[in-house]
Design a protein that fits this description.
It contains four helices and ten strands, in the order αββββββββαββαα. The mean pLDDT is 82. The strands form three sheets. Strands 3, 4, 7, 9 and 10 form a five-stranded antiparallel beta sheet that branches. The chain has 184 residues and is of the alpha+beta class. 33% of the residues lie in helices and 39% in strands.
């Protein structure tokens, strides 16, 4: 075997190895499962506001098509329309600043993370909803549908207490969202 045959074989083996490595990485990357993290919760009257972060590190987009609160045997879907949190206008200006919740379906591009605020409105959510939940020692459960797969998410009592926002914190979060929407 001469020198050029050896170089040819080495380059073919190297090419095959790099091709296999690339194919395996593409398959692994495509099948990464997106994750959802609940950032905070805030109840107002018969409305529950929930901030979630959807992280999609796969190479294909994901769609969150359903997000519901499961309490006992009741399922409360998030609103299918944006809910108004707050609005304000500047004196002398005809424009009004408003902050709305997000609504499902939600699409998340590949290799990104996005934050969404979902609202749940229902007669089953009362002012004492969380107080009763915490006193009973129940977990808070959510069921969501991501790319046609159904997932279950539970929040323990200790996590629930840490996630509940105070009124001023919620006001700051909504104002931040209002300012962000104004810039966009």
């Amino acid at each position: 075997m001469n020198f050029w045959q050896t170089v040819s074989i080495i380059s073919q083996v190297l090419s095959l190895t790099l091709g296999l490595y690339s194919t395996i990485n593409i398959l692994v990357d495509k099948h990464k499962t997106p994750s959802i993290k609940i950032k905070w919760l805030y109840p107002i009257a018969n409305q529950l506001n929930l901030c979630i972060v959807v992280s999609n590190m796969s190479s294909s987009p994901v769609a969150l098509t359903k997000f519901c609160l499961a309490n006992n045997k009741n399922f409360i879907d998030s609103t299918l329309y944006p809910v108004l949190f707050t609005s304000s206008s500047v004196a002398g200006d005809r424009h009004c600043l408003a902050a709305f919740s997000d609504s499902v379906p939600i699409n998340v591009s590949p290799k990104t993370s996005k934050e969404f605020i979902l609202a749940f409105t229902n007669d089953q959510i009362s002012d004492n909803f969380f107080t009763n939940l915490i006193n009973k020692g129940q977990k808070l459960s959510f069921i969501y549908k991501l790319n046609e797969k159904i997932f279950h998410l539970e929040i323990s009592q200790s996590d629930l207490k840490n996630m509940l926002l105070k009124k001023q914190e919620f006001t700051n979060a909504v104002l931040s969202r209002q300012n962000r929407d104004m810039i966009l």
